[in-house]
Structure formats: C-alpha cells, structure tokens
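Appendix B, example 12.
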Amino acid sequence: MSDETATPAPANPYLVLGAAIVLPASGHVMLGVPARGLQFLFFMVILGWVTTKLAPVDASFIGRHAGGFLIYALSILDAYRIARIRHAIWVHKARTDGDSAEGNAPSNM
C-alpha cells in the first residue's frame, strides 16, 4: 500500500540555481512559478532601459544596464531561495521523527 501523504522530491536547489544563472526566469519555470519569472524578466528589461537613458555616455556596458543586472541578480537569489525552502520543508517532512525536538542528542541530556 503506497503512502498517499508522501510528496515527490522538489527540484534540486543547485540545479535551479544553475538554470537561473544561465537563462533568466528558467529557475522560476522549473519551480512551477513562471508568472514570477516573467515579472522578473519584465522588470529586467524596464530597468535596463531606464538606466541606459540615465547613464552617462562614457559608462561601460554594465554601467549602462545596471538596473537590469540588479534585477537579474535578485531573480537568481529568489529562485534559489524558493528552491532551498521547498527542499528543506520536503526533507523535514520526509524524516520519520519530523516534529521531534530531540534530534540525535542522548536521552539523558
């Protein structure tokens, strides 16, 4: 008889991190929240465009698109954070003594 309360393993947080670094919003798509990834993409484009208009002419490529790179970095952190939280919750629920406060400490402590 199968355990109906068991949930499938969430995506590996490091895999989500790698995907989010390589392709913006792909980490959010892997996590099942594509609308959140699309929002990050939208704000990347908007803030990248705004900083190109506000940056001085002699600024570097990174300086001219700093707003977009900021949102890109935040989207990477956000996707990784969601993946780590989901993985930690899954590991906690998978433990047989999930809500025990004892852990591995001896019983005489």
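The helical segments are 13-22, 26-31, 34-54, 61-64, 66-94. The radius of gyration is 20 Å.
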